[in-house]
Amino acid sequence: MQPIPSEIYLPKLKQYEGLLRTWQQKINLVSSSTLPDLWERHFQDSLQLLPYIPEEAKSLIDLGSGAGFPGLVLAIALSGKIKVTLIESDLRKCLFLENVSRETFLDITIVQERIESIKESMTADVITARALAPLPLLLEYALPLMKEDSTALFLKGESVQKEIGEAQKKWEFDLEFFPSLTDSRASVLKVKHPKRIHPHD
Predict the structure, then answer these.
(1) Phi, psi for residue 145 in degrees, rounded to 5
(2) Cα(32)–Cα(98) distance, rounded to whole angstroms?
(3) What sign does the dihedral 80-13-59-2 (CA atoms) show?
(4) How far apart are CA 171 and CA 82, in angstroms?
(5) What's the whole-model pTM score?
(6) Strand 59-63 relative to strand 83-87: parallel, antiparallel, unpaired?
(7) Which tens digits make up the pLDDT trace of 104-118?
(8) Mean pLDDT across the chain, nearest whole number?
(9) Predicted local distance difference test score (pLDDT) of residue 198
């Protein structure tokens, strides 16, 4: 998926960063320890998913969006090219996401709800998540939202191999594994065709 030209979206991401720093003084959007390196730790970390989004994708659902990583960053970088839905249960974080989308003139959908409560009629071509849950639980969350050929992109930390092993006890799935561009201990997982091994357990 080709983003809109960076000279168009980078100013919007800078605006987003400014709003995050302002709101962070009132509510805890990101870990305070990451504030000095906010751009690389959060924005560039999210942007690295762009090459893995299929060219033909028309819709994206971001699970547990929090402060908007990676979903809101991707929505800005792909503005107008893909329908983005952010799912976040915390009202204050949803208000922040709405504020950023309004200030950057972004057309996205923000759903304030727990992921488990989302109606199965909501599906997307791409499912994303970052720092949300271990892989077995991510697959539980993502499966009802995935179509036959949907792609799930998960940003994972240093326990990824253990999580893959745990997931493979209950799931079959096609997996591609890419090193993170922003953290040598982290990685990007690209998952397709998840299927429970014992669906009635």
Answers:
(1) -100, -5
(2) 22
(3) positive
(4) 29
(5) 0.94
(6) parallel
(7) 999 999 999 999 888
(8) 92
(9) 75
Half-sphere exposure of 73 (CA within 13 A, CB side): 25
SS (H, E, C) the chain: CCCCCHHHHHHHHHHHHHHHHHHHCCCCCCCHHHHHHHHHHHHHHHHCCHHHCCCCCCEEEEECCCCCCCHHHHHHHCCCCCEEEEECCCHHHHHHHHHHHHHCCCCCEEECCCHHHCCCCCCEEEEEEECCCCHHHHHHHHHHHEEEEEEEEEEECCCHHHHHHHHHCCEEEEEEEEECCCCCCCEEEEEEEEEECCCCC
Contacts of 82 (CB under 8 A, 6+ apart): 1, 53, 57, 58, 59, 60, 74, 75, 126
Phi, psi of 90 (to 5 degrees): -80, 120
Name the most confidently modeled range: 32-36, 39-43, 104-108: 104-108
Q: What is the pLDDT of residue 1?
A: 64
**What is the chain's Cα-based Rg?**
16
76, two tokens: 């800005």
- Look at residues 114, 52, 99 and name the one whose alpha carbon lies nearest to residue 77: 52
For position 166, what pLDDT does the model report?
95
Q: Where do we find the tokens 């893995």?
A: 52
